Amino acid sequence: MRIHVTNVYGFSGMSTVLQSQHEVMDILKDLSDSEIGLYAYIYEAEPKNELSSRYDGIIARVTPGDVVIFQSPTWNGVDWDNGLVDKIKAYGGRVVFFIQDVPPIQFENNYFLMPYFINMYNKAEVVIVPSERMYQRLVEEGLTVKKYVVQKMWDFNVHMDLHTPSFERKLYFLGSVSRFPYIQDWKCNTPLYCFGVHQPDYDYSKVHFGGWLNKPELLLELSKGGFGLVWGTSEDPKDEKVYYKMNCSYKLASYLSAGIPVIVPDYLSNADFVKEKGIGFVVSSLVEADEMIQNCTEDNYNQMVSNLKHVQYLINNGYFTKKLFVDTIMALD
């Protein structure tokens, strides 16, 4: 038996999809046998015989009994992904779905695709899900796969020295501001520093905009001190989409990788982890987040930074992903 891991290519810019899947592959390269590269492309007009030949080429290394950890979705569409899964199984391969996003839940207008995703997931022997809550939701939608492993946390491979965070009452936020309206109309006393793609039609007078930074640059900047903000698209958590309660936050791992305490909403799937480890504040509103930061003392901050050391080490050395891999392989018959 050999183990293969899919990995997407072809996305414009350094999207979170590309970053996260490449990070997984980078961490698992010494534990798996090969990478299966999947290119993001427009395929609707491709004749079936040509698509079948493309699939054959993609899985040329897969032999009967091999395991393919399929990082899902590839964003080529559920029909394309499903066709590749069928081809893998036709050649005797065994499929594990590493479910990182579920488009029918993530985007309400795609909910009609749910039966197609469930049908595809049900072809796996094991599924990796971002949270227990996500698994239960998929079961409600028709998932019949009994063996599952919960991801819990993203990892980063970090091979450099970072700063020791200093106490500063400021917030960092990662992401495209166009998706988060409350950023443009920032009302909190705590200054906000945003990193992401610049939107020319936005008023940045109320926030400090740092632009897009690559991973080393970003982690070095974050590690200087402050707090990392994880929040949904609405200022009020009561208005937040259910999806944000079930997915595994890539932003959260970014901040923890830099060693800085975090501010997270109480509905986040990792909220209990943050509270139990004493590595940040779990709040119900941005107003409460602002109050917690303004009332935080240097001693409180330094204690959270100290609490974070072990978690930061695990994330920066890929241990959550490695454990996920081992637990998944052990779950197979």
Write structural notes for this entry:
The protein has 333 residues and is an alpha/beta fold. The protein has two domains: 3-155 and 318-331, Rossmann fold; 171-316, 3-Layer(aba) Sandwich (Rossmann fold). It contains 13 helices and twelve strands. The protein has helices at 16-28, 48-58, 78-90, 103-106, 114-121, 132-140, 181-184, 215-222, 250-258, 271-277, 286-295, 298-316, 319-331, and strands at 3-9, 34-39, 67-72, 94-99, 126-129, 148-150, 171-174, 192-195, 208-209, 227-229, 262-265, 280-283. The strands form two sheets. The chain has a six-stranded parallel beta sheet with strand order 2-1-3-4-5-6, sandwiched between helices. Helix 10 links the parallel strand 11 and strand 12. Helix 8 (215-222) crosses helix 9 (250-258) and helix 9 (250-258) crosses helix 12 (298-316). The longest helix is centred in the last third of the chain and has 19 residues, at 298-316. The protein is globular, with a radius of gyration of 21 Å. The mean pLDDT is 91.
Per DSSP, the total helix count is 13
Shape: globular
Structural class: alpha/beta
**Strand tally, please?**
12
Instruction: Encode the helix/strand succession as letters.
Output: EHEHEHEHHEHEEHEEHEHEHEHHH
CATH-assigned homologous superfamily of the largest domain: Glycogen Phosphorylase B
Low-confidence runs (pLDDT<50, min 5 residues)? none
CATH topology of the largest domain: Rossmann fold
Largest sheet composition: 6 strands, parallel
Write down the Rg: 21 Å
How confident overall, as mean pLDDT? 91
What is the domain tally? 2
CATH class value of the largest domain: Alpha Beta
